[in-house]
Structures are given as structure tokens and as C-alpha cells.
Amino acid sequence: MADTAIHGSPELQGNHSSGGNYADLDAQLSMVPIYIVTHASQLPYEFLNPSPERQLVIGFDCEGVDLCRHGTLCIMQLAFPNAVYLVDVIQGGEMLMKACKPALESSYITKVIHDCKRDSEALYFQYGIKLHNVVDTQIAYSLIEEQEGRTRLPDDYISFVGLLADPRYCGVSYLEKQEVRVLLRQDPGYWTYRPLSEQMVRAAADDVRFLLYIYHKMMDKLNNKSLWHLAVRGALYCRCFCINDNEFADWPPIPPIPDDVIDKENALEEEILSVLHVPPGKMGCVIGKRGASILSVKESCNAEILVGGAKGPPDKVFIIGPLKQVRKAEAILRGKMLEMY
């Protein structure tokens, strides 16, 4: 098993205005070993064999080339409290991913990830893995903001770099992320090269090594209602771009509304994912000039509205949210499509 340790990565700098807590955290996490995994035997037994007696919470992320259904998954990062595992998909291939499938689909292993949509899409279409039981820190951040009375504008999603920089959660300036983004623009095949360079190992590990710390910070803030929203929206976002012909009948069920969050004055509503087909060549009309048309729909409905964009799937609009709000968004979008003719 290859083993590399990060010692005081200079590219991750603490925000000293947060009281110095970051320095202690960074020193602690810098001692956590990093294992490069090319065979399933190098992964922890409790990960490969999910069990209700050994429930786990791990940090999770994926790296690749144009990561989506058509891209190439290259590395899968798993952060445990005592180690970070970089699953080398290029070297380990189908057999290694098959061994990881039960864990990624298990309800006994919580996968903490920032923005799960494209990772889930790549896992589903490339390896038949239905990513399940995620805590998406991008969703959690928005729920905490809403819970604390702050209004989020449409398309105002916190980036991972932004989340790390927030002193309420970490207070880290993630400089190396910017450097890697520049390298990726220059060479999209960056993550395919082997052996992994020191920079690649460090960058991949840094994408997950703070996630468990952030997770615990967020769990302390979220109330029961927000926790239910987090579970439901995580499940729906995992399915978002994984459209199939059976309407997700073979996926795990969406978490029901629990009894302890039923509020008669502010009744919770079932949340759903709806997929609308847009006639070929008409997506531009739906989106509008500089996104003005679809932005107006987002502003009038309390629902998330997503399009596949350049990565696809083309000619589809994905709507996630409370049932009535989703139906309202559907009606407006269908009206816009009728206006095209």
C-alpha cells in the first residue's frame, strides 16, 4: 500500500481572525496518513462491508476529466478520521469500483460531499453505482442560512473554496485549488497521469480532509426540520442527472417526513424531482438572454431549477423542491415552451 503524509501544506492557510482554532486543526489533520489505493484489500474492512453495527461517516469526493456521464472518473477520495484513501480508479478499474459499490450505496455509511450531482452522475453511468446517503455540504450551508433568517438568491450556491474560507466552518484560504484549476484549464487530462505527483496527492486529499470537521460543525447548527430537508434534497440531487427509464424505481426510497418535524402551522410538504423535456434546439429560448428567462422562473418559485449545460444531458430541465412549487415551475416552463411556436 503506497503511503504519503501531508506535513503542513503551505497552500492551505488559516484565517487567524477565527481565534487560531484552524492552526490546531491543520496540525492534527496534517498527521493523518494518505493511502493510494489500487486494490480493494487496501481499503478498511468496515468500508467494504457496510453494517448497521459499524456505521461510518466519511468525507467523499471524485476527480476526473470532464466529470459527468461521458467523462472519466480518475480518483475517488475517502476521508476517515484517521486516514485519507485515494482510490485510483485509473489503476484499479472496474474491479476496484465494484468492491466500493456496496459502501457507496449503503445507508450505513454517510458520505459527506460538497455538490454531489456530477459525482453521482459519473458513478451511475460509468459504474452502475447509485450514490446514496449523502450529506451535501452545499445544501447544508443553504439550509443553515435559511434557518438563521438569511435569504439566498437564485443560483447563489456556496463554492467549496468559499465554504472552507467561512470562519464559522473552517477559515481556510485554499490557494492550491486555484492553482489546480489553472492546470486543468491548460491540460484537462491532469488527473489521468500516473504515478500521481505530490501536488496531485495533496490536492486530492485537501478536497476531503476538512469535510468531517465541517460536517460536525453543521450538524450542531441544523434543526430536525433542516436535517430532513438535507436528507431529502441530498437524495434528489444524487438522482438529478441520473435519468433513466424506470423513474428511479431501483433507487432507495426518498426519506419520508418524520413525525417529530410535523408542524401544523407550517406543514412540511413532500419534495420531488421533476424532469422536463425541452424540444431540440429550444433550450436557449427557455433559458433566455443571459439566463433572464429561467431566472424569472426561479424567482417566482421556491424550487431549484437546473439544466445539464455543456456536460448534458441536453434538452432537459430538472426541478427539485416542494411538490406544489415544482408543479408551479413546470406550468411556467411549459408556458414558455408553448410561446416558442
Automatic annotation (TrEMBL):
InterPro entries, per the entry: 3'-5'_exonuclease_dom, KH_dom, KH_dom_type_1, KH_dom_type_1_sf, RNaseH-like_sf, RNaseH_sf
Q: What is the lineage of its organism?
A: Eukaryota, Viridiplantae, Streptophyta, Embryophyta, Tracheophyta
Question: What's the domain of life for this entry?
Answer: Eukaryota
Q: Name one GO molecular function term.
A: RNA binding
Coiled-coil regions, chain positions: none
Q: Can you name this protein?
A: 3'-5' exonuclease domain-containing protein
Location of the 3'-5' exonuclease domain = 34-223
Q: Which UniProt keywords apply?
A: RNA-binding
Q: Where is the K Homology domain?
A: 270-338
GO biological process assignments: nucleobase-containing compound metabolic process
Q: Membrane-spanning residues where?
A: none
